[in-house]
Amino acid sequence: MLVLMRVIAGSFRSRTLNAPAGMNTRPTSDRLRETLFNVLAPRIEGATFLDLYAGSGAVGIEALSRGAASVAFVEREPAALAILRGNLDKLKLTTGLRIHQSGVGAWLRRFNPGSAQKTGRATGFDLVFLDPPWDAAAEYEATLRLLGAETGLLADDALVIAEHRRKERLADQYGALGRTRLLEQGDAALSFYAAIRMMRQNQ
């Protein structure tokens, strides 16, 4: 069973997307995506975006629609990947993106200290969004700790956003990442993280 969604704004505004039903690949609602991208609006143009647990790809596609330079989608579930590819085909999106069929933890561990230079990236990702299954508490912990390990995956002023169940509180700090903002909407919440050293410089 599929759920219909839409692109909120940008070059693909109002175009419909398919999303898989069910909590394991629970799609980020249109309303919550709008809230997320209202916050990201000053930073999205020309940004490099990483969509972890990408599911249907709706968040990464929204980023491309609003002017992100590139998006990397990471998703391991074959059914979700088929829908993601179908959505990209529907919009005729072929450039500025990469799809990685992999578990998120395994993919991030390939960026251990020293490995980032091997990818040829001069800088890391500017924006990272993660939306694991809400009941997978261990996924949140492990993924945010890997992102906070200063492996070169993140740009110096990167922003990491985790979508989670409102009643499930994430930690204020994961390695080098500290929470800067918490937004709550219905049953969902968005926790925003940035490098602690950058937070201190901006104080």
Can you give a write-up of this model?
- The chain is an alpha/beta fold.
- It has one domain: 3-Layer(aba) Sandwich (Rossmann fold), CATH 3.40.50.150.
- The protein is built from six helices and ten strands; from the N terminus they run ββαβαβαβαβαββββα.
- It has helices at 30-44, 58-65, 78-90, 104-109, 137-147, 196-201; strands at residues 2-6, 16-20, 48-52, 70-75, 97-101, 125-130, 154-165, 173-174, 177-185, 188-195.
- Strand 8 (173-174) and strand 9 (177-185) form a beta hairpin.
The helix tally amounts to 6
The CATH architecture category equals: 3-Layer(aba) Sandwich
Number of strands: 10
Oligomer: single chain
Beta-strand residue percentage: 25-35%
Which structural category fits the helices and strands?
Answer: alpha/beta
Q: In whole angstroms, how far apart are the ends?
A: 48 Å
Mean pLDDT across the residues is: 88
What name does the CATH topology carry?
Rossmann fold
Q: Poorly predicted ranges (pLDDT <50, ≥5 residues)?
A: 113-121
- Measured as a percent range, the helix fraction is 25-40%
Q: What is the CATH top level name?
A: Alpha Beta
Strand count, sense and barrel status of the largest sheet are: 8 strands, mixed
Summarize the structure.
The protein is of the alpha/beta class.
Please outline the helices and strands:
Blueprint: E1 2-6, E2 16-20, H1 30-44, E3 48-52, H2 58-65, E4 70-75, H3 78-90, E5 97-101, H4 104-109, E6 125-130, H5 137-147, E7 154-165, E8 173-174, E9 177-185, E10 188-195, H6 196-201
Parallel strand pairs: 3-4, 3-6, 4-5, 6-7
Antiparallel strand pairs: 1-2, 7-10, 8-9, 9-10
